[in-house]
Design goal:
This protein is of the alpha/beta class and 494 residues long. The chain contains 19 helices and ten strands. The protein has helices spanning 10-46, 59-62, 88-103, 128-139, 143-152, 156-165, 167-173, 180-193, 198-203, 226-229, 241-248, 273-281, 287-297, 321-325, 330-339, 372-410, 449-456, 466-482, 484-492; strands at 78-84, 106-109, 112-115, 120-126, 208-215, 220-223, 258-261, 306-310, 347-354, 435-442. A hairpin with a 2-residue loop joins strand 2 (106-109) and strand 3 (112-115).
Amino acid sequence: MLLKPFRYPGRHLMRVCRLNLTLNRVLIMKTAIGLMIAFFGLTACTAHYHVNQAVTSIEVVEGYSLKKEPGDPRSDELLVILTFSGGGTRAAAFSYGVLKALAQTQIAINGKKRRLIDEIDAISAVSGGSFTAAYLGLFGDRIFKDFEKKFLKQDVQSKLIKRVLSPLNWFKLGSIYFTRSDLAADYYDQLLFEHKTFRDFKTSEGPLIAINATDIAMGSQFSFIGSQFTPICTDLLSYPVSRAVTASSAVPGAFPSIILKNYAGTCHYRLPEWATKALKQRQVTTRQYQQAKRLNAYLDVKKYPYIHLLDGGISDNLGIRLLVNATLTEDELWNKLKDLNLINTKKLAIITVNAQKETDKTFAQRDYSIPLIDTFGAASSIPLDQYSFETMELLRNNISIWRELITAGRCPQARSQSTKIKEGTPGADPPCTVQAYLIEVSFDMMQDQNEREYLKSLPTTFHLEPTDVDRLIAAALEILQNSKVFQALVSDLQ
């Protein structure tokens, strides 16, 4: 028998080994891909926005208000309320400049030297202004140490865009229950708010912070305060500050809505007396009726099981409507002050910070049809500008009325007096007469026309050059220094 020639098996074995190695690599890659798909698929399925919690009693929720509690370091005689407008980093920096000015202003309360910033009782804030207000409410004087570096002089906008474009977040964003707004809230938590909730506002010695958004279904302002959360029977104190700020600054189109679940009917809430009366009388053209109608709508949980919130600037870009809506009737104002332990108020100071930009009107110089982008810009700015103007006018008119009503409540003998009120100007009024100071801080108050026009042209984004931030802060300081009403307030507190 002929023997077959012996063949060296090395080459064959090498081919087999290579084949096995390739098959193993393919198997490993398939397993890894499968695990990744399973993991990220699970992530997409489980990614969900923060769900607000229900309460069975409204007492805890109502506690987040302007009520003066025993031991409050602020004076009983001075009531200071600030409003911060929207406008991205422009608004955040402008309002920060006002806080810096108040921190540098020394006053005397009952013979004790204090800074005016320590007397702030409440801040009502919108969109960009809500970042500044929330940071002050949570961290106090720390705002002057790191807020500029951490937020005002950061390119927050680019970092948000990078997070949206990052493959690590694509699977989360694949869930219908997790959107760009939820991603932004997580980022703001890491960047600024350190997982703080509204309970941290309440336990701090800072002012009441009212963050304002817009309820898109109602078409009205939605404020993160106790009286807004009691009708829907939900726990405000456990709610993350970052999500409230995100809702307040969620520009339509760029950011989806922040969602709250409505638990109406689980906490024995009843409409206030003024609202019940307004609904019965059905004087549909009054603000009382419209506000009562909105409150009552929240009680229909079948119709409104979820509340969708977007940028607060849609309903009120100045943060002023909260003050106006809190004083819908004359009797209600004094009763509210009694409930809040504020009947000793002798001086009422309201500082409005308006960072509204100039609308681009350059298309008016062209002899051809307005481009689509300019059309959208003009169409959206016209109602906003007009509504803001009307809101400011309403506040100017109301502050005189509030002064008269508080004075009448404090000293009934003044009720019959018809002395004309001059805001911020001391006169020969009875000792119990309340002094009212409306201090407006806006770019229009600047004396330098070139600087005024420059600041009004800054974009509404979450990124400005550090030099622009510095100019905004300096502008706020200058405006308050030149404000006759502000200087009258400081003089009266010496």
